[in-house]
TrEMBL record:
InterPro entries with a match to the protein in the record: DM9_repeat
Signal sequence extent: 1-18
CDD domains per UniProt: PFM_natterin-3-like
Name assigned to this protein: Uncharacterized protein
Keywords for this protein: Signal
UniProt keyword Signal, yes or no: yes
Length: 369
């Protein structure tokens, strides 16, 4: 009997319209600022939940960030912003002052010390997906790490979804209302491929540091004769240049990644960008390590019965060049392109030279007549 009664009650509530469940009419919403008490005595975890993504919680500083996450509230004909206090997701709207309105323990509260949700550089694609009875779709936006609470909404506005309670909670008119049907904010993650291209270097802002020389090759030459001789010595060596593109905090997915750019090189200590576009795959940081042949030629005058040593010296440069680029994320349906920036960094050979060290007498040489 109790089981049948519970099932009947469940069916009755689930078939009720939102207007039937919500106890207050929309006309009660105009005085939210007067009715919602400020938060002073409820203990919650106030540490922001950092999921190391571009969708993140940012401390409120008195104005709405350009990249704040918002919804168009058709019910009240206004733009609402996603905010939170502790783990409690709520709503910010300038009509009610600089407060985040949220619900807790059957009441609505407001606070001027809160976080607002931002989508940095509008990098991520955000989607509202349907949920019910506490269900939460994959890649939902969570409010904090210490409690399982997610950003939710229904036709009346923004609030929080708590799976353990099987419900979505809405702050409204000084009270907390709950619903079984709602939508949850999610980050689109079905990425097939990522591409960085359209790389533009700011050569005028480049910084270079010339390091002390290092020896690449050594060639000893000798003259066992009794007359001076002149020889031409050519030294050559392959040396690897290390180059990478530091994009900083940019979070990549696990999808395949491709980098497409023209690559800077050094010629006689001067930055020269290749005319050829290079395309390669990468996993975390775009990196290019290739060997280049360097050579140096010098004429050496060797005294009789002497030997000389010729060295090829290389001057390596630490090079930093700011750049801008486009990151394109290809999804199963559609794509999104966003501007990014970073720094090209390289440790490259910029100059080589041949140096003749002081010649010395051959101890084994025979005396000249």
């Amino acid at each position: 009997f109790l089981l049948k009664l519970s099932l009947l009650l469940l069916l009755a509530l689930s078939s009720a319209s939102p207007q039937d469940i919500v106890k207050k009419h929309s006309e009660d919403r105009h005085d939210l600022e007067d009715r919602a008490p400020e938060m002073t005595d409820i203990s919650v975890n106030t540490s922001a939940y950092d999921n190391k993504d571009n969708v993140k919680w940012q401390t409120w500083t008195g104005s709405v960030p350009d990249e704040a996450v918002s919804i168009w509230n058709l019910y009240d004909i206004r733009v609402d912003y996603v905010c939170k206090y502790g783990c409690h997701a709520g709503v910010y709207n300038w009509r009610f002052g600089n407060f985040c309105h949220y619900s807790f323990d059957k009441k609505e509260y407001r606070t001027n010390s809160f976080d607002i949700l931002v989508n940095d550089k509008y990098f991520e694609i955000l989607e509202w997906k349907e949920g019910s009875f506490g269900s939460v779709p994959a890649n939902a936006v969570r409010t904090c790490s210490s409690d399982e609470v997610y950003v939710g909404k229904n036709k009346y506005g923004l609030g929080k979804v708590r799976p353990s309670d099987w419900a979505f909670y809405l702050p409204w008119g000084g009270e907390e209302y709950w619903y079984w049907y709602y939508e949850v904010l999610t980050i689109k993650r079905d990425i097939d491929h990522e591409l960085i291209h359209d790389v533009e270097y700011k050569i005028n802002d480049a910084k270079m540091i010339r390091n002390p020389p290092s020896t690449l090759a050594v060639s000893p030459i000798s003259n066992n004769g009794c007359n001076p001789v002149t020889k031409t010595v050519t030294l050559s060596k392959k040396v690897a240049d290390d180059k990478w593109w530091d994009i900083g905090f940019l979070p990549f997915s696990d999808a395949p990644k491709t980098f497409q750019a023209k690559i800077p090189n050094l010629e006689s200590g001067t930055i020269v960008v290749s005319n050829i576009t290079t395309i390669f795959s990468f996993s975390e940081v775009p990196t290019d390590t290739r060997e280049f042949s360097h050579s140096a030629k010098v004429q050496v005058s060797i005294p009789p019965n002497s030997y000389c040593t010729v060295k090829m010296l290389a001057y390596k440069y630490n090079v930093n060049i700011p750049f801008t680029a486009s990151l394109v994320r290809f999804f199963k349906k559609g794509y999104k392109s966003v501007p990014i920036s970073g720094t090209f960094k390289g440790i490259m050979v910029g100059e080589v030279s041949a140096v003749v060290e002081r010649c010395a007498h051959l101890s084994s040489a025979q005396l000249c007549p």
